[in-house]
Each structure stands twice: as C-alpha cells, then as structure tokens.
Design brief:
Number of strands: 24
Structural class: alpha+beta
Number of domains: 4
Bound molecules: 2-acetamido-2-deoxy-beta-D-glucopyranose
Distance between the termini: 132 Å
Strand content: 15-25%
C-alpha cells in the first residue's frame, strides 16, 4: 500500500518534472552575433522576443563560430552561418543541419564566378591561357571575396611551383608571373607593406596591365569587381575573373553607356570549352558561393524550418518581425532548403566551392607549430587553424599543447614547436636563457599597455626613487618587467652600489618580496614573501597592503583595478586613495611593454619568418579588431567560451612586427630598449669614490711636498 502510494507520487513527480522541462524546451534559442554599427541589433530586437507568445529567445554569441559551438553543445538551437563557417564545421566534423537560405535575390547562389575571354585573344581552351594578359579583381575586400575564391582560377590552371627558398605566397605569385604574359592584380599581395612593395617590383608583370602599374593598389581603375571587367572590355587584358552577375550587367542589353556589346566575348569553362557571352545556353561557372544559411541542431531542424516559413514583417513590432531583423543583414527572403540537408551535401551543390577549399599545398607541407599551455588554449588554436585555412591563409597552423610556458620555451630549443606567446614578465628569460627572438607583438592602446609604475603611500613623503633607499618593496616576480625596469632606473641613476645586480638591489631596498628569486640570493629580498601568495601584479599589491610595505612596482592597470576587484583583494582596510603613483619630473612610469609577444628560435630563416608573420597578420585582418564581415567569424581577441585572454590578450589592438600599435606612438622607456641597455653591473661606489680617493691622495701628496719645501 505504502509502496504503491509512493510509486504513484513518484510517477506524478516525474511527470511534473518532465512537463516543466517540456514547457521550457518549447522556446527555441537563436544564437545572435552583434556586428558593428547597423549590425548591432541584439539590444533592440532581443527584448521583443520575450513577448509571451514568442517561440524564440536570444542567446548572445561572441562570434559566428561561437554560435556553431553552442549549437554543437546543445546550448542553442539555431544561428546564421556563412558558407565559410560551414566549411569549418565540416572540417571539424561538427554536425548541424541546413534548413533555410537567406537570399536577397532569386539566384541559387550568393554569387558565381566566371572567366570571360576576349575572342580576339585566340583562346580556345584552358591551356591557351599561358602568355595571355589576365584581368584579376585584386585583393583587400576580404569580406566579399576570400583569397580562396580570388585565387581559384590560377590554382586550377597555373602549374604551382614549390621553391623551398621562397615563401608560399611568393611561390604562388611567381607561378602566375611566369605563366601569364602580364596581369593586373591590384591591392595588397601580403599584409606587410615593405614586403608587398618588394614583391610587386620583383614580379612587376602582374601589375603591368593595371591602369597605374607602378602603384598597383586598391585605387586602380582595374581593381575590384567592375575593375576586372573594365580591364577586359577596354582591351587591356585577354581574360577576366569576375562575378557572373557583374558580367551580366556589364554586357546587358540596357542602353546605359557603361555597358558593352557582348559580341566578341566568351566564357571559358572549367572543362576547357568556350560559350559566347551572348549565347542563350547557361554560362559555365568555375566556383559558386552559397548563400548564408540558418543552421540548426539536428533535433530542432524540422520545427525551425516551419517556424522560419511563418516569419514576416507584416506586424512591425511583433516577435516574428524582430526575429527576422536579427537574422538578416540586407533585406532578405528566407527560403526553405528541401529536404533539410547536412553541411557536406549542401556545400557539394555549389560548383567548385568544396574543391576550392582543398587544393593541395607544397610538399613537404609547411606549418607553424604553435605551443599552447591548456586545453582551452589548444581548442581556440584549433578553431583558428580551421577558420584561417578556409580563408586561404597559408601556411597551416598546428597546435601543440605543453604543460606550461617554460616547457614551450624548451620546446622551441628542442625544435618540437616553432612559436609561443610570451608574457612581458618572461621576455628577459626567453631572450637570455633560451636565446629566442620576437616574431610579432600584441600591440595595444596606451591605456591597455603594461606600464610599470611605483605605487607608494599617499602620505609617505617619498618624492623620488632615491627616497626608496632602505624601504620595504614588493615586486611581482624576479626578472620580470617591474624588476628589470626598477633595476635599470636605479642603475642609470647610480643608486646601486654592489654587484651583481641582485646584490645591489638587496643592498638598496630593505626587507622586500621578490617572488621566484633564485635560492642563493640575499634573503632580505625574500623576507616579506609568504609562500607564493604575493606572486604577480595583484600579489605585489597584496604584499603592499598586507605587509604595510612602502612601495609596490606593478602595472598601472593592476594599481587601478586592484582595489575595485573585491575577489582579488579579500579583506583589506586600505583604499585606492591611501596610495599614489610616484612621479619624478612629470615622468610617472618606469617602463612600458606590449601585452605579449610571439617568440621563435633565432635559427629560423628569413623565409620562414616572412611566411609565418604573414599568417598572423592575415588572421589579425580577418578575425581581429578590423574584421570585414558584417558579423565576426571568430574573435582573435576577446572572450573565448566565456574565458578572458585565451592564447591572445583581449585588449590587443593588432598584431605587428613592431611593439607599437601606431607609428606615431612616442611613449618613452619601452621595455625592450631597457633590456637591450641594462648594461654591465658596475658598482657605483667604485665609480664615485675612486676619483675622490685618488684626488685626496694626490692633494695630500702635493701638500706633503709643498710642506716639505
Ligand atoms: C551572338 O553573336 C554572334 C556574333 O558574334 C552572332 O552570330 C549570334 O547570332 C549572336 N547570338 C545571339 C543569341 O544573339
Ligand atoms: C539584346 O536584345 C536583342 C533584341 O531584343 C536580342 O536579340 C539579343 O539577343 C539581346 N542580347 C543579349 C545579350 O541579351
Ligand atoms: C613549468 O613546470 C616546471 C615543472 O615541470 C616548473 O619547473 C616550471 O617552473 C614551470 N614553469 C612555469 C612558468 O610555471
Ligand atoms: C641553432 O643553431 C646553432 C648553431 O648554428 C645550433 O648549435 C643549435 O643546435 C640550433 N638550434 C636549434 C634549435 O636548431
Ligand atoms: C647565484 O647563482 C647564479 C648561477 O647559479 C649566479 O650567476 C649568481 O651570481 C649567484 N648569486 C650570488 C649572489 O651568489
């Protein structure tokens, strides 16, 4: 009896739980990515989805691939993805289904690319392209044409060289330069301006057809979508690589002056055949780019497709209209994909699109092996690798996980990895103990740089570095930015009286804490330390407040945020007003450093460095602060799966081969300059006292002699 009652109660309870979850599940979750400007839509439209009759709610994704991951983990039901995102999904074997396409016209694809030839050029099949003049749309509108699509014709018809003494990019350029008689490929070939200039001089025939061959940039008359067609119709080139819709409007029957008679022009097909442009048979396409799509979780696909069909702008303030607004970039029609399709088969319907993404590279394959130190870093690195490859970034990145940064540095020495991101505090060690050099820097705006300052008590009366003599000091770590910058300042002011530097510092300061100080060094520099709780910038601030020390050498931001950051401070009685930054003659910092730098072996060849630097500069352009798509594909800087500073720092402005974000940056005391000028330890006692002593001896001698006379 009791048992049956319990059983019934249990069944009812289970049912209730089940029903409540079912009720919750009926609201589908759309993963929304905010773009820039007019593409910032979440704040405006997501609240409307909270209406009681709405069947959808917003989840804010960090970027489109973040949405893809959320769908894969079952944390979102659907999102808008681009064709490139789908290739990444396919390569990473992430299962989503395609239910709808977002189109802005009736075409089957967003665009299709064709090769148009001038009949007078005597081209009767694809092999006749050799020694012809090529009109290419050029580079630098990554948002619209990926390099993969821009280079498709050349990769398909031009035999690709693999000279081991040239970068991959230069190999491609050289192959085209040898193959074509001349071309106009305007715009940046590589991201580094000097290198771009060098290549354009070396392979000048690829700019020769341009209207301004010596400049060969994005302002050229023959640059861009309409530029390549203009180049062809003006008779400058024999073959043009262009979008079919642009070809159609260029050769249309409209009476507009800009159009051209189709007579005398033909399509060159991938199979080698020729079709006149004025022919009624459908033109032959080399590669088609599929429309953006609604990608869904398998289990929700059917419902979401039906839901999509019911959306409209009929009621402007309805949740359905709000959802449409969230999904579309231009005014779109949401069409059904019938039947609902898997990514691979969906992409396979677009001519050339999948094969464009799988052309073989050089052998042996060239890679940049990046060292990571956690699962999350390795995961982000893996997504970067896939996403970059889809945009035609070469060479490939490989991600290898080590236990910590020290192991990574050792890995570079052992040649088991090529590159590691090194934080400012480890730069000196990486240079001196591991003999590494920098490939590029994570540059930042002034307010985000690592700026070393001396934090002292507001009422201490300390006015200069020399006033710190005998005082209790807290450092984040031995041999870090703060340590070396203080050492440099004191040394250049001749305040260090003993050698080596460690002894001089111990002699200058009173009881202090310098975490990770080598075992054999003076104990006074370790006296304030308590285990390792005073390690790092916040550690040094804790040391300052808990130990009632006189000075902490930390980054300006650590000082600014420490007192606000309750988690880090714990129970302390002081406030930020009890402290101030020590300034001497209006100079308030001891050094500054970029947020981090990529370090590599000094053995790497010039060639390897050029190839690898370009990989990261290209990723910076595609996934960094200056991304071109309406919404972000993947955030190089910024949260990854909700975590800060994964692999790269969130506050990075851009990656550069110089430490400054902008060329006009003139902030003094750059940390690397300081490291290069640390100098020899010369005990200042000997510098000052020796001349005095000898002077004294000399004068006594004279007095003695004079006295004797
Ligand atoms: C296309 O142009 C050719 C001449 O170049 C002409 O003979 C042919 O009739 C034209 N075809 C159509 C469909 O207009
Ligand atoms: C242009 O219009 C004429 C007459 O309408 C037609 O015969 C011809 O095929 C058209 N050409 C193209 C390229 O559409
Ligand atoms: C990395 O781990 C090793 C031990 O395997 C340790 O000696 C070293 O100090 C660690 N490095 C860092 C930066 O934590
Ligand atoms: C770098 O080159 C030096 C001398 O050429 C050699 O002794 C050393 O083993 C090389 N290191 C690596 C990591 O290849
Ligand atoms: C401590 O040891 C290192 C090398 O092990 C040496 O370079 C340094 O001079 C030593 N310091 C002192 C104070 O003896």
């Amino acid at each position: 009896m009791v048992i049956t009652t319990r059983l019934i109660a249990c069944v009812i309870f289970t049912l209730l739980v089940y029903l409540s979850t079912v009720k919750c599940r009926t609201k589908y979750q759309v993963c929304v990515v905010d773009g820039r400007g007019s593409n910032k839509k979440a704040a405006r439209y997501c609240p409307i989805l909270d209406e009681p009759d709405s069947r959808v709610e917003c989840i804010i994704g960090l970027d489109r691939l973040d949405c893809l991951r959320r769908i894969a983990k079952g944390k979102a039901d659907f999102a808008v993805l681009t064709a490139e995102d789908l290739v990444t999904a396919a390569n990473l074997r992430i299962e989503v289904l395609i239910t709808n396409e977002l189109k802005y016209n009736d075409d089957d694809f967003e665009y299709e690319i064709v090769a148009v030839i001038n009949d007078a050029a005597g081209i009767s099949n694809r092999y006749d392209l050799r020694d012809k003049r090529f009109c290419h749309p050029g580079y630098s509108y990554d948002g619209e044409w990926t390099r993969i699509i821009a280079n498709y014709l050349e990769v398909s018809v031009v035999p690709q060289g693999c000279d081991p003494y040239l970068t991959l990019t230069e190999n491609r350029i050289k192959s085209s330069s040898k193959y074509f008689k001349a071309a106009c490929k305007a715009g940046p070939w590589v991201n580094e301006p000097t290198l771009n200039q060098q290549l354009k001089q070396k392979y000048h025939n690829l700019c020769e057809v341009c209207s301004n061959p010596n400049v060969c940039n994005g302002n050229d008359e023959y640059w861009g979508r309409s530029g390549s067609l203009l180049c062809l119709t003006a008779g400058a080139g024999d073959i043009a690589w262009a979008r079919l819709d642009d070809v159609r409007s260029q050769f249309s029957n409209a009476t507009s002056r800009v159009t051209t008679s189709p007579e005398g022009f033909s399509y060159l097909c991938p199979d080698g055949s020729i079709i006149p442009v004025n022919s009624t048979s459908s033109p032959c396409v080399w590669v088609a780019k599929p429309w953006p799509v609604i990608a869904t979780k398998r289990t929700s696909a059917q419902d979401i497709q039906e839901l999509m069909s019911s959306l409209s702008h009929d009621l402007p303030n309805s949740w359905k209209s709000a959802l449409l607004n969230l999904l579309e970039t231009y005014h779109v029609t949401v069409t059904q994909v019938q039947p609902i399709e898997a990514v691979e088969s969906y992409l396979a319907r677009a001519v050339g699109f999948l094969s464009a993404n799988s052309f073989p590279g050089c052998h042996p394959p060239r890679t940049v092996r990046m060292c990571t130190t956690s699962n999350i870093e390795n995961a982000k690195c893996g997504w970067l690798r896939e996403a970059a490859a889809v945009y035609g970034v070469e060479p490939d990145i490989e991600c290898l996980k080590a236990d910590n940064k020290t192991h990574c540095l050792q890995g570079i020495l052992d040649s088991s990895v090529d590159l590691v991101m090194v934080p400012p505090d480890m730069i000196h060690m990486a240079k001196t103990r591991y003999n590494l050099r920098t490939l590029f820097y994570e540059t930042a705006k002034d307010e985000n740089k690592y700026i070393t300052v001396a934090v002292v008590k507001s009422d201490s009366g300390i006015k200069s570095l020399s006033d710190l003599k005998g005082k209790k000091a807290c450092f984040p770590v031995y041999d870090g930015v703060a340590w070396n910058s203080v050492l440099h300042s004191l040394n250049s002011k001749h305040l260090l009286k003993e050698c080596p530097f460690e002894k001089g510092m111990a002699d200058f300061f009173g009881s202090s804490c310098v975490p990770d100080l080598p075992r054999n060094e003076s104990t006074s520099l370790r006296r304030l330390c308590k285990g390792n709780i005073y390690e790092g910038d916040y550690g040094a601030m804790r040391c300052l407040t808990h130990e009632d020390a006189d000075v902490a050498f930390v980054s300006q931001n650590a000082f600014t945020y420490f007192f606000k950051d309750i988690k880090q401070t714990g129970n302390i009685k002081q406030t930020i007003t009890d402290y101030k930054i020590l300034c001497e003659k209006n100079l308030c910092h001891l050094s500054w450093a970029p947020l981090g730098q990529a370090m590599i072996s000094t053995n790497k060849t010039d060639l390897w460095r050029k190839d690898s630097l370009d990989v990261f500069l290209q990723m910076d352009g595609l996934f960094g602060a200056e991304y071109k798509d309406p919404t972000r594909t993947l955030s190089l800087y910024g949260l990854y799966d909700g975590k800060t500073d994964v692999l790269f720092h969130d506050a990075t402005a851009r990656l550069r081969d110089v430490p400054i974000a902008k060329n006009m940056d003139r902030m003094v005391l750059q940390y690397e300059d300081i490291l290069n000028n640390l100098g020899e330890c010369i005990p200042s006692s000997s510098i000052r006292t020796l001349p005095l002593v000898s002077m004294f001896v000399y004068i006594s001698c004279i007095l003695f002699l004079v006295g004797n006379v």
